Amino acid sequence: MIVAFVVSGLVSYGSPLRNHFDQQYVICVISVLSIQETFGSTLYSSIQTIIAILPLSILLFIIQIVGLSYHHYLATEILLLLLSLIIAYQCTQIQTRKIALLYNAIFFSTIVNQNSLPKVFVFLLLSMFIIGMSIAVLVSLFIFPLFATFDLEHRFSYCLSNLHRMYYLIVQGFLSRDRMTSKVSLSRASILEQMIRETMLLMQPRILEAKYEPRTLLKRLFYRKRKNFIDLNLQDQASLISSLMFHICSLQLMVNQCQFDEYHNDLRNELELSVYYLNSCQSSLISAFLSRKSVTNQDLRDRSANLSKAAESVRVAYKKLRLEKGIQQSEGHLPHGFFLFQLFYIVKLLNDVVTNSNQNSNRTVQPKTFSWRNYIQFDRARFLLALKSMIIIGVGSIFVMVPYLAKIFENGQWILIAMCMTQAETVGGAFTTMKMRLIGTLLGSMWSYITYLLVADNIFWIFLVLIPWIFLFGYLRSYPKWGYTAIVAAFTPILVTLGQLPYGDRLPAGNYALLRIEENFVAILISIVLTMSIFPVFAIDLLKESIQKSLHSCEESIDSMHKIFDELFHHKHSEKDLSKDQIKSFLQQQRSSFHQLINFQRILVSNASVEPTFCWFQNRFSNTRYNLIVQQQIDIFRMLHNIDATVIYLSEYSINVTNQSNSCSLFLRNIHSEIFEISQQIMNCLQTWSCYFKSSQTRCHYFTRGILVHRNELIQNDLFKHEQCLVDLHKIIHRLEHENIHQLFQQYQQFDLILLAFSSIYYSLAQLAQATLNLGTTIHEIFELEMTDLYEIY
């Protein structure tokens, strides 16, 4: 950011361009604003901005040529509102929308108040934006470049190595002699889990940014020695990390609930050496994946073979113990069978990387087809949001268009600009943005005043004083809590000290800093009132809508689980048969969309916590409980993923066994019918809870979505339905915990991998029911807090 600021300053004030621009400080501001964390992100945001403002510039040029000029207040106001409506509707990305609205506001506020503007004023403004963004892109490319491609590689390496550390700690906890020793290892694993999750959050955005980088060229230049590095594309790397995270967290869940009884001690004594050897072989294969040196394909295959042999030794040791102990201690077989199955499935995932790397390198991704329907189709909610933006900008433009107010507020342009830049998708998001902007403006204006007192109007010394300030907030910008606050604090001194928008130079810089605080404060107060009163979109409504979608996604996952079972075991076929690779790809897409919903919910929980929810609920917003709901949805989906993975694994392994044992097919049908019966009850519960979130949304949400309100008040029958669902789930859990599995162990004594898979399915079903019960309990608590007067705050 400092280099971009200095280079843009040299271009603006130390080159012949200073003779062509009156507002060259805009170049400095845009160059600082355009700098992002990676080169791909900087290029992507710059391209999106140019795509938005280039056609807008042509349209504004035509408007100016037609005759719009100085003091044409009515025509200017009408055109400003019309174009603001079009921009807000067409720009779906919030940051691009803000920049385009800002660009539009600058043009109209300048042309109506400044006489004798050149006919090409809009193109001069466009050239300043493009020069600023070009400087940012070049600086991002040549000065300490961080490419999204490499950042993804580093995140993949970090996550993979720490996932293995987490895996080792969980295995260590499983092999501990007592519960307290196990808890120590599990607490360390939980710390690693949190670090890995924070690292994974940016993997999907980085994949989008990497599309704007020359990935093949970068890998050839910087990975010359790593010719045999696993050839996974970026999406496959993210998918592998996500799958490993699912299964390792499943291991963690089992060890947390593990009973350190006599059976467990016998199992630990029998498996300890072989499990540690398995971990050693797995560590060797992962280190080969992450090695900076060249690793031959043969070496990878040898390490993969050693890992398979180590897994086989664990299986043999477990089979030996099971045959010795028989079925007298069958209660401990389900959780331990689940644990061992997860170990073997992780081995399978890593071995598949070695086996399928060449296939992945030759795979091509089908490009998305362009459709005009996405642009022509009318969206009621988006139109109302655009109309709201137009009204807010219209109110802000009064301070520019009305001469009396313009005189009081020095043309009022900062009020209009602040109202453009503090808009958001939700009321809570807008409030958060306003708070950050106000704090950033206060900090930046204070430093502007100090700069003015120290160096007055000396441009050279102004740059020297601003550099440490930009460095400080450029550093703080990387922290999520500072984000937008740091950006505003960084560019505010540039605006105040290097120049102002037209007709803002009547006051000295010191007074202008105080005026900027005053205008931002006025703009934020007006925006708060308008945001709450005009078509408000509350984050709590979008949060409940997102929870409905994620619950529906879980229902679809349950439904697809039965279809996959039928498809793989040929009980019945769909119209179009699917291969195993297509099924895995389908599950991967399902998992990706679910993660997007969960990430969106985390943001909405934060935004909803600042909204005045006490106005329509009995109690204030429960931040803790909604965060708990987010985590419990992940627990449910993780168990569904485990069942899907087990069914696919079972279909791959049991072909030969089925040919040897006719009873296997019969048992598969029985277990499928049992899964179907239990999952249908779980689906009924999810549908009931989804109805609560739908009926408890505000009337504003129904209006913006164009939905007729049938009933949104609580009736006593709703609580009864919820309580009955909880009772039914408790019966399912009790039934699964006391399931008679003696027949299962007697029938498949010789087929231990099938036995482990069946154990994993039963245990996953029990944990799925338990996770659903936990989710239902939390939803029931929210139900009572929001819709009843059972709990009153003192």
TrEMBL record:
<feature type="transmembrane region" description="Helical">
    <location>
        <begin position="73"/>
        <end position="92"/>
    </location>
</feature>
<feature type="transmembrane region" description="Helical">
    <location>
        <begin position="123"/>
        <end position="148"/>
    </location>
</feature>
<feature type="domain" description="Integral membrane bound transporter">
    <location>
        <begin position="405"/>
        <end position="529"/>
    </location>
</feature>
<dbReference type="GO" id="GO:0005886">
    <property type="term" value="C:plasma membrane"/>
</dbReference>
<feature type="transmembrane region" description="Helical">
    <location>
        <begin position="483"/>
        <end position="501"/>
    </location>
</feature>
<keyword id="KW-1003">Cell membrane</keyword>
<protein>
    <recommendedName>
        <fullName>Integral membrane bound transporter domain-containing protein</fullName>
    </recommendedName>
</protein>
<keyword id="KW-0812">Transmembrane</keyword>
<feature type="transmembrane region" description="Helical">
    <location>
        <begin position="383"/>
        <end position="406"/>
    </location>
</feature>
<feature type="transmembrane region" description="Helical">
    <location>
        <begin position="460"/>
        <end position="476"/>
    </location>
</feature>
<keyword id="KW-1133">Transmembrane helix</keyword>
<dbReference type="InterPro" id="IPR049453">
    <property type="entry name" value="Memb_transporter_dom"/>
</dbReference>
<keyword id="KW-0472">Membrane</keyword>
<feature type="transmembrane region" description="Helical">
    <location>
        <begin position="99"/>
        <end position="117"/>
    </location>
</feature>
<feature type="transmembrane region" description="Helical">
    <location>
        <begin position="521"/>
        <end position="543"/>
    </location>
</feature>
<feature type="transmembrane region" description="Helical">
    <location>
        <begin position="50"/>
        <end position="67"/>
    </location>
</feature>
<dbReference type="Pfam" id="PF13515">
    <property type="entry name" value="FUSC_2"/>
</dbReference>
